[in-house]
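Item description
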Amino acid sequence: LKPCRLKPRVGSATASGGLAHRAPVSLKAASGRRRLRKRGRHASMASADLEASERTPEENAAFFGTDLQDGLTSREVADILARDGPNELEKPPKPTLLMLFIMQLTGFVIVLLMVAAVASIVVNATGPNKSDILSYTTGKAIFVIVIINAGIAAWTEHKAGDALDALSKMTQAAIYVVRDGKEVREDVVSIVRGDLVVLGTGDVVPADLRLVE
């Protein structure tokens, strides 16, 4: 694994949809695994202008306020996670059931059906049988069918979205990190800048990392 040139992190996720720039500080071998460190914020003025790949592991540790052996503490992780947010792409707000229902009514075929229903009602309202309620049956029936169809489609899409969210949580990747001096397994979304990440064969690289050893 080669050290890569890293850029300063701007937010929890980039606006372009890329991975959050939670650049690691260092990587160190332990129990057959390689450890990598992620970025923090505190550093000396001498190394502040350098990229993470240009600093020594010790300078990176000072810059990110972390320890090369014991990693971050649980309190530090909680503070950084609260400040920077989870290690995941920014997700658009989930549409509500009402919004999905309205979106169903904007389909081309649905619009044509509603126009046909309005035309049918207008024709009957201006015809000789305008006082006959039964003459408006066709237009009313079209409106009822359109509303029922939009409601069923919106509900189905809403439930499908919930199922996909549950599936994504079940398949969420996890990685080993060193925290409080112990190697623990954590979800990738909970990785923070300054974490000491331990990589083994087949592991997922959770973010931009700096190789230490």
